[in-house]
Every structure is written in C-alpha cells, then in structure tokens.
Amino acid sequence: MFVPLLLVAITPLTALPVDVKESRDGYSLEESQRYASATSYRQLLGGGDITSWWSENIARTMRTAVLPNRLPANTFERNEGEWAGKLDAVSAKTDLGTMTLGEAISDPRSATKAVIILRRGEVVYEAYPGLKSADSHLWASVAKPTAALLIEQLIDERKLADTDSVAEHLPDFAGTALGAVRIIELLDMVPGTDTHDSAQTRQEPDSTATRYYLAEFGEAYKHGKVETVREILKSAGRTGEPGQVFEYSSGITQMLVFIAEAVTGQSWPDAFDDRVWSHVRAEGPLQVHLAPDGMALAHGIVSSRLRDLARYGLLYTPYWSLVADRQVVSDAARARIARPRHSHEVFIKGDGKRFTGYLGETPLGNSRQWDAVYADGGMFKGGMFGQGLYVLPEEGIVIAYYSTVPSSPLIRFLRPLSKALTIQDGDDAR
C-alpha cells in the first residue's frame, strides 16, 4: 500500500492541525482508501490527516504481530470526582500560550485524541475528545522502553550484562562500529556512531536514519534496492567515542531488539508476549508492527488502547499488582532507570537540550530509553506526534496521552500535574 518516496519535499494531504473531533467516529470508505494508498515514510513525517488516520490503522498498511490480552482486564477504581476539576485547572506555559489543562485538551490546535491520569491505581482523569476508548493508537517512540525492558529482565537473570559489547551477543556485528559499543551505551543512546535520528537527519536522503526508516516501510533507498535495518546498522560509521554525547536514535533501539532475540532465542514479539504482555490484565491486544523482513519495530511502531498504555506505565510502579499477575519490572530495574549512568553534561551536550526545552523543566538526564528522569523519580517518554507516557513510581502516578501534532502542549503539563497529584489536603508536595 506504499507509494513511491518523494525525497524532494514532505507533502501531506492536508495542513496541520487535524480536527480529531471530526474523525472520532471513523473515516469514510473514500478517506480510508485515499489515506491508505498515500501512506509512505515521507508523507507520515508531514503529519496531517494521513498521519492521524495511519496512527489508528497501522495494521492496514504494515505486517503486524498481535499479542492477545490473555488475562481478564482489571477494573480501575475511579476517583474523578475529587480530582478532575482540580486537574483541569492546572496551568502551564505551552507553545500555544499559557493555558489550563482543560483548555489545552479542548483547543483544536492540540489535536488531543485521548488522555488518562492514574494516581495509586485509580483513574483520576480521563478524556477522549478524538478517539474512542476501545480504539488502538500508535505509541510512537513511547514504545522504546519496551525494548529496554526485555534487556532489563535479561540483566536481572544474569543472561547478559549492560557492560557487554554488542559483538558478544551479535557475532555478525564483530568488526563494525556498533560491534564494540556496550549495551549500556545502546540503552542510553550514546553509541558514538552516525545513527543520530533528528529533524535534520530525517531530511538528509543519505543519512543512516533515513535509510533505516525507508527499510522499515519497504521503500527503496537507491537503485530500487530495499535494504534491511540490520545491514544498514552494520554499515554505520564511527563519529566519536561511545559515552560522550546523547544522540537520539530509533536504529539504536532496534539493536536492543536484535540482542533480546539472540539471547532468548525467540522473536521479539514472542519474547515480549511471554515475558510481559501475557501477564498484563489488558483490555485489548498489543499490536507490534513489523518491517517487511519481519523485524519487530519496537522503537515506536506499536499500537494499543490508551488504557493499556497506562497499564504498561503502572508496571513501573509499586502498584503493578493492580494490572498484572506478576512483577515484570523489577525493583532493581527501576533503580537502574532512576540513576542515569551517563552525566548530565553528556545529556545536555546532545539532544538533552532539546528535550529540556520540550518539557519546560531540566531533568537529571535520559536513562535506559526514557527521555527524561527527575530527582523525585519521575520518568518521561515521548512520541514523535505528541504521544506521551509519564510515571512517578512511588506515588503510582501515570499520565498517558495520544495526539497528532509534532509537539503536543500536554508535555508541559506533566510536571505540574505530577506535583499537583502529590499534594494532599494542603500538605507540601512530597
């Protein structure tokens, strides 16, 4: 269903913003056919109606591994009466101006499709202005911690160490730039290779990032050849010493997928199903979308219902038993995430400055596929088109949202909401 790549320019069918309220009840036959036939890597980068449609219908355009919801779904307790009004009134300075949460969600420019907030396992806020609660939606890069989670489990089981080199587990990478990189340098995205994924590299026709995204969508790079992500990453070049600069990269996340498969002897979807999703009391399946060669696109092309994304977030808290039949994120793994291995200088020297600008508050740094971790334990992971997952483990706070704009204003509310939710009866925030 993919059309030829247009390297000259991004040409979305319609301009932003998307009226998500108008599409909430679905799409016409003509719209679905038109968007499906126009879906391509470059078109999706442009945002607009194509991206909005595709985010809800990826399985119509890509191979997909469906991980069933195997356990009865938990029933969340609700406490919106106490909290919803208070949270709606929380304000933040956003790219759309200073506004309250309620104003941000209702503003059509935010293209907010859905948002949910949990506190100690209770739903304290939930809204679906542009999506139905049973609809699945793209996680985008919010999915990156799923790739890290399997690695964390293997570390707990002593089947690998984060100080191991890539080549120790992937012999076919021996002698390559990435072969000498340690697993911790993959987790923290400091490999010192030309795999950087940024607005600039995504526009460069010969960049490693452009090549691996084309491969994922089955589109030719040059001379009609469709590459594989694995062979592209084997050809990555060295740009500096590992561990020196945080350079965001979906390709680096995929290296974790290859390592997890090598160590478990399972395909990534099977391993994630066995180790994680089959233990979650989810409402619906997790959709793991695949490249043409069957590679699981765990760096971001994953879909689920919003509540199930929130359930995934709750796995990283002491309240995990409310949504799972066993602890899949160990206390040791949470502790590793909470303490960035690489310095704040390494973070801010690279993409950390950009992430700090988005968030409006400077974190300690990035850590193990999470974009930002804070001194109070808060953890954030964002997605390219305005998706987000924020977790404050000890308070059981989870904020998850879907939208279809490159920079959702909701990102600026995460820390103010987190602080508001930790205040009890006029007491100071903990």
List keywords for this structure.
alpha+beta; 17 helices; Beta-lactam/transpept-like; 4-stranded antiparallel beta sheet; disordered C terminus; 430 residues; Diverse_Enzym_Activities; Beta-lactam-related; 14% strand; Beta-lactamase
The CATH topology: Beta-lactamase
Structural class: alpha+beta
- The CATH architecture is 3-Layer(aba) Sandwich
As a percent range, the share of helical residues equals: 25-40%
Percent range for β-strand residues? 5-15%
Give the class-level CATH name.
Alpha Beta
For the largest beta-sheet, the strand count, sense and barrel status come to: 8 strands, mixed
Low-pLDDT windows of residues: 1-15, 425-430
Number of domains: 1
The pLDDT mean sits at 92
Anisotropy-based shape: globular
How is the largest sheet built, in terms of strand order? 2-6-5-14-13-12-11-10
Instruction: Write out the CATH superfamily name.
Output: DD-peptidase/beta-lactamase superfamily
Query: For the CA atoms, what is the radius of gyration?
Result: 20 Å
Distance between the termini: 51 Å
Total DSSP E strands: 14
Count the helices. How many? 17
